[in-house]
Amino acid sequence: MKPAFFIALFVSLFFSWTMPALAYTPTSSVTYNLADGVVYHKYTYNALYGGYQEIFVLEIDLTKENLELGIGVCPSNKLTNVQTQGRNNGAIAAVNFGFAEMTGTAPSTAVGLLKARGKWYKGNGGIYSVYSEGYFWATGQRAGVVPPDRFSVGMADNLRWCYPMLVWQGAIYKPMADVTSDPSGIIVSRRSRTAVGVTSTRQKLFVVVVDERGGRYAVTCKELADYMLSLGCYEALNMDGGGSSTMWTSAYGLMNRPQNGTYQRPVYDILFVRNRQAAYPETDTSNPAAPSSGNMTSYTPKVER
Predict the structure, then answer these.
(1) What does the alpha-carbon distance between residue 49 and residue 51 come to, in Å, rounded to a whole number?
(2) In a domain, 24, yes or no
(3) What domain range includes position 208?
C-alpha cells in the first residue's frame, strides 16, 4: 500500500480518538493533548448560531488516576485572574468558575454556595435573578450537575452554585428553556460564556468557553445548552461569563480572547485540572447545616451522583 494511505489512516484514527462526537461539524479545528486524559480543542463555525463562533473546549477524562479536578479560590479573598490562580494550584488547565462580588482590590465573596476541596467559603445571595439554578459537584474521579431538589451539602468535596442549569438527563433543562425574559440578562442575552458538563458516566467532563470579541458571535444560554448536548453532555451548568470567561493552560497560556482582549478579569474561583497531588486533610467548622441566603435554599438530604 502507498504511504499516503497510512498517513490518511493515522490522521483518521487520531481524530477519532481525540475529538468528541460533535453533532455540528466545525469549519476548522485545532487539538492539543495537554496531558494524559486532558485534551484541548478549538472549534470555529462560520454560522452555527447566527454568526461566526469560536468555541474552546477542554475534554477531561476523570477515569485517569493521574488527574485531579478541583476548585481553586483566590488568596485572602482578593480577586485574582485565572492564570495566576491556575499557576498557584499547579494546574494543567483552568477556567473562571462561579459568580462573585465585583469589589476591585477589596476583599470579595462568592455569590452562592462554594465548597472547595472540603472547605466552605462564605457566600451571599447576590443580586441575580434566579430561574434555573443548579450545583456543580466533583469528588474523587466523578463530577456532575444537579438541580436543587437533588442536592445535598455533603454530597461532594467540591460544590459550586450557579445558574442557569443548561442540561439535565440528556435534554435542555425545562425551567431554563421556558424562560422568555430575564431581568439579569444572563439567560436570554448573547455574551461570552463559560460552561461545564458531564456525560452520563459522570467521568468525562467538558469545559466550554465561547468568545464574543473581534467579530465573534456570542451565544444565549439556550444555544449554549444545545451545544453542550452536541458534545454528549448528560448534565451541564452555565457558569460566570461575559468579561470573566477565560481559559488558560500551563503549556500554551491564554487560549481564548476575553472581552477585554488579552486582559484577564480577576475572579474569585476557578475550576482546574492538575496532576494528582498527595491528599491532605481540610478542616472547617463552618459547614452550613441550613443555608438561608436567597439562592442557597431548597436543600434536601438526598445524595445523587
Answers:
(1) 6
(2) no
(3) 32-275
